[in-house]
Amino acid sequence: MKASKKNAPQNNYDERSLKGTFASVLVVAAIIVVMWAGVFALYMARV
């Protein structure tokens, strides 16, 4: 019984990893949206 508790995966590490991944995805998405908005504004100014 003690060995099975010792081999159980720790969820704290997984949750931190997923939170970091989610934050990174949000940052990349924000950069893409800002770049798209800038290009669209430039297009609208020239049209």
Walkthrough of the structure:
It is a single chain. The protein is rod-shaped and about 65 Å long. The chain is built from 2 helices and no strands. It starts with a helix and ends with a helix. The mean pLDDT is about 85. The chain is mostly helical and about 45 residues long. Helix content is about 85%, strand content about 0%. InterPro entries: Cyt_c_oxidase_su2a, Cyt_c_oxidase_su2a_ba3. This is Cytochrome c oxidase subunit 2A. It comes from Lentibacillus cibarius. Keywords: Membrane, Transmembrane, Transmembrane helix. Pfam families: CoxIIa.
Over all CA atoms, what is the radius of gyration? 22 Å
> Shape from CA axes?
rod-shaped
Mean pLDDT value: 84
Low-confidence stretches: none
Distance between the termini: 72 Å
Estimated structural class: mainly alpha
Report the order of strands and helices.
Answer: HH
Please report which band the strand proportion falls in: under 5%, 5-15%, 15-25%, 25-35%, 35-45% or over 45%: under 5%
User: Main β-sheet, in a few words?
Assistant: none
Helix count from the secondary structure assignment: 2
Level of helix content?
Answer: over 70%
Tally of extended strands?
A: 0
Summarize the structure.
This protein has 47 residues and is mainly α. The protein has two helices and no strands. It has helices spanning 2-6, 11-46.
Write the layout of secondary structure elements.
Elements: H1 2-6, H2 11-46
Organism: Lentibacillus cibarius
Transmembrane segments: 21-45
Protein name: Cytochrome c oxidase subunit 2A
